Amino acid sequence: MRSFPVRCVASSLAASVLGLAFAVTARAQATAGPIPNPAAPTAAAPAPDGDGVILIGAATTREGFVKGRPLIETAAYKVHASRRDAPGIVEVHARDTDIFYVLDGTATLVTGGHPVDAKTTAADETRAARLDGGTTRALAKGDIVIIPSGVPHWFRDVQAPFLYYTVKVTGPAPTAGSGR
After folding, report:
1. 3-state secondary structure of 92
2. Taking CA atoms, which of 15, 44, 49, 144 is between 20 and 30 Å from 111?
């Protein structure tokens, strides 16, 4: 039986998960153009080519991780070059499922529990200072975490720099009478 290095398996798994996230929203990509990125007003949003494929070059990606910023945002998905140098605040996304792939560093992620002093900050977005309860997970290079929409999450402890790709897959807007 052949043995494969863990790095090879982890890279393949990460590519598969990210590929799945994009495949789920590929149909919407053709009709959902890039949303302007207010975090980087001088950067042009990448446009799809004739086949609907979008390439975000290595230089743009590297630059994104310097401070952490969105690389592309559409109505169907978002891809961010995320960077944390300190703990964050609790986030709850009503429509976005977050997929994190850790590139470097370590952090403690708490999911679930009850947001304390939660405030709505934008449509479908809630923030809080901390969580009561929840499940604690240690994250490190190579880890992939999938957080379904509606699940509170919080980077409680961070060893800087903590670099990770974030893919946000946006679910449908609630419809009248759906209870969402």
Report:
1. strand
2. 15
Lowest mean pLDDT among 5-9, 53-57, 111-115, 142-146: 5-9
Q: Residues 165, 112, 114, CA angle at the centre, nearest 5°?
A: 125
Q: Is residue 49 classed as helix, strand or coil in its secondary structure?
A: coil
Looking at per-residue pLDDT, the higher value among 14 and 49 belongs to: 49
Instruction: Identify any residues that bridge with 167 across adjacent strands, giving them in sequence order.
Output: 79, 99
In angstroms, the CA 88 to CA 19 distance is 27
Give the residue-averaged pLDDT of 8-25: 45
pTM equals 0.76
Residues recorded for the chain: 180
Which structure tokens are listed for 153? 């999450």
SS3 content of the chain, % helix, strand, coil (to 5): 20, 40, 40
Spell out the domains of the chain, with CATH numbers in brackets. 6-39+47-170 (2.60.120.10)
- Please report the pLDDT score of residue 46 as a whole number: 87
CB-facing half-sphere around the CA of 146: CA atoms within 13 A? 8
Residue with the bigger pLDDT between 179 and 110: it is 110
Neighbours of 28 (CB within 10 A): 14
Distance CA 99, CA 87 (A): 18
Mapped onto helix, strand or coil, the DSSP state of residue 43 is coil
